[in-house]
Write a structure and sequence with these properties.
The protein is mostly beta strands. It has one helix and eight strands; from the N terminus they run αββββββββ. It has one domain: Jelly Rolls. It is globular and about 45 Å long. The structure holds zinc ion (ZN).
Amino acid sequence: MKPARLLADTLILVGLLALVVRPSAGHGAQGSHAPDNAAAPQPKVTSLMQQALAEEFTPGREVLVHLVEFPPHATLERHWHPGEEFHYYLEGDAEIRIDGRPPIKGVPGTAGHVPYKAVHTAVAGAKGAKVLVVRVHTKGEPWRYVAGEGPGKP
Ligand SMILES: [Zn+2]
């Protein structure tokens, strides 16, 4: 194969890969409103587990385990959860900004907590971030609400 042909094939391959690995829009969006930053890369959210807790122990609650993968500099829209949220930061870094509280600097090997109904966002650093998220969640409710929406509307 001639070098010029090889270069052309490589460029085509890179272009195809860019299409394949492009983060899909709309992951995690709740409700009918498109996020303000719809054009920005959004985190990929993978549900790893959804497990109801024993009624005699913690009635009406379940635990959700999500793997959240942020592209570099991705920013989550402001949102809240009908539950308590715990983070374990696996890779990269992210700043968790919670209304009325100091921000959490999420770096690998550390953990963070978002209180019940607290409105928050997350901003990934230059390398993106990978975060294991565990929520004690109210059964039957969406896993999150955009700020200003949902019951109680915090
Ligand atoms: Zn959250």
